[in-house]
Amino acid sequence: MSNKNEKYLISGEKGQWEVVIGLEVHAQVTSNSKLFSGSSTKFGAEPNTQVSLVDSAFPGMLPVINEYCVQQAIKTGLGINAKINLYSVFDRKNYFYADLPQGYQISQYKNPIVGEGEITLDMPGGSKTIGIERLHLEQDAGKSIHDLDPSSTYVDLNRSGIALMEIVSKPDLRSPDEVNSYIKKLRSIMRYLGTCDGNMQEGSLRADVNVSVRKEGSKELGTRCEIKNVNSIKFMQMAIAYEAQRQVEILESGKSIDQETRLFDTKKNETRSMRSKEDAHDYRYFPDPDLLPLNIEKSLVEKIKKDLPELPDQKKERFIKDYSLSSYEANVLVSEKEVATYFEEVIKTADKKLSTNWIIGDLFASLNDKNISISETPIKAKEMASLVNSISSGLISGRAAKEVFEVMKESGGDPVKIIEEMGLKQQSDPKKLEAIIDKILDENKDKVIQYKAGKEKLFGFFVGQTMKISGGTANPQLVNDILKNKLK
Amino acid sequence: MSDITKKTLTEIVGLIKKKEIKSEELTKSFIENINNDKKLNSFITNCTEQALEKAKSFDKNPNLENLLPGVPIAVKDLFCTQGVKTTAGSKMLETFVPNYESTITKNLWDEGAFLLGKLNCDEYAMGSSNETSYYGNVMNPIAENTVPGGSSGGSASALAADLTPTTIGTDTGGSIRQPASFTGTVGLKPTYGLCSRWGIVAFASSLDQAGPMTKTVEDCALMLEAMAGFDKKDSTSINKKKEHYSKKLTDNIKGLKIGIPKEYRVEGMPKEIDQLWENGKKILKESGAEIIDISLPNTKFALPTYYIVAPAEASSNLARYDGVRYGFRSSKGKNLIEMYENTRSEGFGDEVKRRILIGTYVLSSGYYDAYYIKAQKVRQLIKNDFDQSFKKVDAILTPSTPSAAFKIGEKKNDPISMYLNDIFTVPVNLAGIPAISIPAGTDNNNYPLGLQLIGKPLDEQKLLNIAFAAEKKINFKQNLYRWWEK
Q: Which of A116, A211, A325, B164 sits 20 to 30 Å CA-CA off A378?
């Protein structure tokens, strides 16, 4: 791997190649009902139990727009600093498939609800702005299940008609790391807004990845390939790395890239051709005559704008300014709304700096170990604050705090009580500490002489002995002071 | 009592309200006519038993406040009816029984009416002679082996033959007005969005509109009143207050301005049609209206525009008939694609396939701008023509069709000549405005001919008033002997 601040380049035999990536993210709109029908959108229901006559395209059924989904799209548009188009049109994208009951998907083609916007990424080399081309609303298709029966395909229409936002980036991304950062940032913004839960396991967030390569320094875009429907960041990164390498090899051998749609095989870690440009569907887009063009009141946009929650970028700035955090710390703490909320809850009563270290350090490590989110940890924000306060007040040492944390991360609980139970309360009575230290000095007269003769390293030995005899509870600051005094 | 089935809907409702006739007796009379019919083939599905039950239960506890108390009504088989097979005239939906009721039929039932049967129509409402129906040709009661027009051919035939006191159709390019004209009945295509499309098998969504087909203008006002209304399940439905067309109906049209568009005088149009039109002008003048010559310069582009827009929408609307979830599925085919191909090859008739092909073509990349986009622009021009004219006139008078009913098979193999039938009706659908066809005379075969009155958007009341005045003066008499009962 190259240095993080360096450009991501593919080294071919004939030179360095830059990778150009654009993403089409499909984000499921958080909404109780579907885009054009009243059916539930709840995940994980029995197959074909959340299907209305509209979703299954019975004769004479008509779509009616779900206003809430429109508002969610506007909200998301505002969250990515994009232009909201007060006039937009729903089009039909025509193709036949067993899980597409209408024989067309209602989407937005020429006139999307949201126009150009941007997202700022915090990369190790500094911040980078990624342009957004557009965001439009569309229906999801149903699901074809091919592996339940050797001779039949089963169709589940629960997903049919669920609202998706397709968010199309400009070809501004240049590396798998940037893609990682982009998806996480977009996901974070939508989760802050409550417009998409961003749950990739449940398919709420998927992406088509457009990849092309060009000679380093070139300004022209190469021919791209589109890798369809990748559903995890890791797979996106793997697919890009593979695809870029493949294209470089083709170009260096003197051949050219065919514009085509490819699939990423997660088992073999390779992309392979799905259909060429010649075989591309002719979707015969045209305005859906069952729906009137969408005319949005300016006042609605203003209202949504006014009610927007604080977004990650704003929160980050505030954290840096109000809590004197570093850019890195602020970034980490705002990336998930729940983490930011947790952090702010902790520092209501506890030291900011120490809390930051504990949350980013020990707490995050424990979440990672268990592969859980902050909302799932047994350590409540109040308990975390109490632990931090026990350190600041000198009730326990930092080392003892780690032991307490080990208990808390498994089963939570009040740290003061745990300290009590474990007997970890810090020994801060100078008289008691003096007695211990006197005894140690008495038993190690030779070392005292050596120390006084200049072997200052031995100071650590005396501290260590004191901590050992006190069972780790001795207040280290006090131990230092007493020792220094006695060894003068 | 004289034959109740020959009476108008308004008369029938009056008799029921005055308790001079029971719904059961009324219903039995229509069922008798239906059972006696040997030739018209206007019904795809009979609901006679079910209708009798409804009639009996109405009689037990009659609500006479409703607009259509105890009236049995047969409807075009394009309206989804709960628990009753709905075929759209296609093999594709031969076994399809919806578990929901279209808004329009529900509105009728809510006003006290009930279902008598489902009426034959062109397959997916694509046709002008009812010859594209999978369920066979329908005959026009005016003469044996004559088409009733289309696509609401079964509706027009059943109405003219007294098999139902009133009916409803759908009109995408003339499918109510042309068959009304061919059968000597009244047919209204309302303003786009006045009647809900929810639960009607879709042909071309931006043009489809349901409307009443009746024996008189008064009946038409009553039916429209029962049908119309805002429906939040249809995004193109117009949110406006319900109107009482029948109560406000008047033949006082003094001072109204009627436009005569010169572009509707087409080459090769029979002399009788010209005379009919002249007579219409004369009658309206006598009623106190002012006749004004106007121009609708883009009329000649209406038919080609229509035959791009309608098939484009149809090609997409009919994609759902794929054999996966309901309706016909071919037993042939080794995989999904073959199943699609066989299902749609076997399930759709020629005219439907022709329009799906045209529609797919005009929407294809490379052709879209030249056809679909251009057609949309021309459509706007056609609408502008009407808007301009309506600054000068209250309504426009034209013939309903360029000819009277023709023989079965006469135009079947000549789609262009068939499409030309809709030349006077199509512009109205493209503009989304209302129009009514009323019987106004006959040709030299003594076949009925209709006059069309076109109005401003949501100006149905004025349109009905003018038609009402004209109807009185024309005094058209339907003179049918029941040859189909032999």
A: A325
B170 alpha carbon, distance to own chain's centre: 4
Query: Which among B50, B106, B53 has a CA at the least distance from the CA of B79?
Result: B106
Residue B277 belongs to a domain: no
**Which residue of A111, A155, A277, A284 to mutate against B (max B Cβ within 10 Å)?**
A284
Q: How far apart are CA B278 and CA B413, in angstroms?
A: 33
Please report the sign of the dihedral spanned by the C-alpha atoms of residue B129, residue B130, residue B134, residue B137. Answer: negative
- Dump pLDDT digits (tens) for A328-374: 999 999 999 999 999 999 999 999 999 999 999 999 999 999 999 99
- A–B: how many Cβ contacts below 8 A? 92
Give every CB contact of residue B339 below 8 A, 6+ residues apart in sequence.
Answer: B323, B329, B330, B332, B333
Which pLDDT tens digit goes with each residue over B155-167?
999 999 999 999 9
Question: Domain limits at B199?
Answer: 4-257+459-485
**Class at the top of the CATH hierarchy for domain A430-486:** mainly alpha
DSSP H helices, B73-148, are 103-110
Residue B438 gets the label, from left (phi > 0), alpha (psi -120 to 50) or beta, of beta
Q: What is the mean pLDDT of chain A?
A: 93
In degrees and rounded to multiples of 5, residue A42 shows phi and psi of -60, 135
Say how many CA atoms lie within 13 Å of B215 toward its Cβ. Answer: 20
Number of domains within chain B: 1
How far does B122 lie from chain A, in Å, by closest CA?
16
Query: What residues of chain A, 133 to 192, have a C-beta less than 8 Å from chain B?
Result: 153, 155
Is B325 in Cβ contact with A101 (below 8 Å)? yes
pLDDT at residue number A1? 39
Residue B398's nearest CA partner among B306, B291, B474, B304 is: B291
Position B307 in a domain: no
> Is A282 touching B (CB cutoff 8 A)?
yes
Q: Which of A58, A109, A143 to mutate to test the interface with B (most CBs of B within 10 A)?
A: A58
pTM of the model: 0.91
Give the model confidence (pLDDT) of B182-216 as tens digits.
Answer: 999 999 999 999 999 999 999 999 999 999 999 99
Chain B residues within an 8 Å CB radius of A58 = 98, 100, 325-326
CATH number of the domain bearing residue B162: 3.90.1300.10
Interface contact A62-B340, CB threshold 8 A: no
Whole-number percent of chain A with pLDDT over 70 = 99
Mutate to test the interface with A, among B95, B192, B197, B363 (most CBs of A within 10 A): B363
CA dist list (Å): A252 to A249, A255, A257, B463: 5, 7, 11, 75
A residues 43-72 lying closer than 8 A (beta carbon) to B: 53, 56-65
Q: Given a cut of 50, is residue A2 above it in pLDDT?
A: no
Domain locations along chain A:
15-305, 310-422, 430-486
Residue in B235, B312, B340 closest to A290 by CB: B235
Tell me the three-class secondary structure of A345-414, residue by residue.
Answer: HHCCCCCHHHHHHHHHHHHHHHHHHHCCCHHHCCCCHHHHHHHHHHHHCCCCCHHHHHHHHHHHHHHCCC
- Chain A nearest CA to B318, separation (Å): 8
Rounded CA-CA distance B129/B150 in Å is: 4
What's residue A354's pLDDT?
Answer: 95
Q: Provide ipTM, 2 decimals.
A: 0.96
| Chain B residues touching residue A64 (CB < 8 angstroms) | 232-235
CB contact under 8 A, B235 and A292: yes
Q: Is residue B325 part of a domain?
A: no
Neighbours of A398 (CB within 10 A): 11
| Residue B342 sits at the chain A interface (C-beta within 8 Å) | no
Note whether residue B420 is domain-resident.
no
CB neighbour class for A126 (10 Å; exposed up to 12, middle 13-18, buried from 19): exposed
